[in-house]
Amino acid sequence: MFEMDYALVGKHATYLKYLVNEVQINGQGIFERYIDVYMNAAVYGLLYNRTAKRDTTSSDRANILAGAFNTCRNDCTLLYRLIMLLEQSTDVTPEERVNRAFRHDADEHEKDKLKANMDLFHSYVFGGIEVMHEKYTDGCTTQDDYLEKIYSLMNDFKEEIQGISFEDKLSQLIG
Description:
Layout: E1 6-9, H1 10-21, E2 24-25, E3 28-29, H2 34-47, E4 61-64, H3 66-86, H4 94-103, H5 111-137, H6 143-161, H7 166-174
Antiparallel strand pairs: 1-4, 2-3
């Protein structure tokens, strides 16, 4: 798991490249590396319950090299295990969730199940890349637009962590 190069293709490769190379503020990108987008996308996909199929409509390609996975293997493995435990798109028992998260990758006889689990994990990554692309780029044309968008997203996230929902804030502003 997370030992070989991984190629994203189609629109997900395009979005990934855009998030790393184009979304910049004062010459600094929001994400420095493809692996950073990949890991964040897993979280966004899970948080927004968004999955997507591998897109092959274009020949665009972005490779995450094995060296990047080697550097971030523990983080990627943690994200994989969290998604296998918490995802709700499949109807499986709690015991099977634990098996997916902790046993299938360790058992040589479970390679087919591990492949299915990795496909499920990547569907969340693809969905997360789509969410990130929408959230970080929609309506943005200038560096100031990107800065405002990022500030707004981080502020919303901070408020959600502090227990202030968007609906509560809206009610406060209206009422």
